[in-house]
Specification:
Layout lengths: L5 E3 L4 E11 L3 E2 L14 E10 L4 E8 L8 E6 L2 E18 L3 E9 L4 E2 L2 E10 L4 E6 L8 E5 L5 E4 L8 E3 L8 E6 L1 E8 L1
Antiparallel strand pairs: 1-16, 2-8, 3-7, 4-7, 4-8, 5-6, 5-7, 9-15, 10-13, 10-14, 10-16, 11-12, 11-15
């Protein structure tokens, strides 16, 4: 059998959707991109401004990570007093609109808080730091994590293909709104191999 395999290395991209600029008026904003990754993974949408823009609301219409219904979700985010972010993780954004104008510069991107749809984690590569840490993959619909790896005290990098022999670790359930988030402590960077 042959399987599709893909990799993800989460990184911040603070102007992925929109470069820093003033907002001329209420309405839909022109987006530079709409899909932050492949195969349904995604991130929280972030808003950054050079001054207080809390008088402007931003409406995101997009696809939540793990939602298998094919329907879009609408979320309103208060404009940042420097920074703010969505509550949901988005695998794709259809539109972002502003409720009004602001002379302050606003950029829209995503953070590195990774959410995975139903998939199998087949391998892991990470870079630690001087303190012991962990990498955890968990779902809000489960009481125990799918995966929790304790990382040693070392600033070296490690590759772990342990999951490959057993076809990987399945994360996410068949429920329409299930997903898994990846959180780290004292891990500088990581790459997951999924499929």
């Amino acid at each position: 059998m042959q399987y599709d395999v893909w990799m993800v290395t989460p990184e911040v991209d603070d102007n992925f959707y929109r470069a820093s600029a003033a907002i001329a008026g209420a309405g839909s904003l022109t987006l530079l991109a709409t899909t932050p990754g492949i195969n349904g993974y995604g991130f929280k949408v972030t808003f950054e401004a050079n001054a207080d823009t809390s008088g402007v609301n931003f409406t995101i219409v997009g696809y939540k990570v793990g939602d298998t219904t094919g329907n879009t979700t609408t979320e309103v985010v208060t404009g940042p007093n420097l920074t703010s972010s969505s509550t949901n993780y988005y695998s794709g954004v259809v539109s972002i609109s502003a409720s009004g104008a602001t002379a302050n510069l606003v950029k829209i991107g995503h953070d590195a808080s990774l959410a995975l749809p139903r998939t199998r984690i087949k391998g892991l590569y990470y870079v630690g730091n001087a303190n012991a840490g962990s990498l955890t993959v968990a779902s809000p619909n489960r009481t125990v994590p799918f995966v929790k790896i304790i990382t040693p005290t070392s600033s070296n990098s490690f590759a772990d293909s342990l999951f490959l022999a057993a076809e990987g670790v399945l994360v996410g359930n068949v429920q329409a709104n299930d997903y898994a988030t990846v959180t780290t402590a004292n891990v500088t960077a990581f790459t997951l191999t999924c499929g």
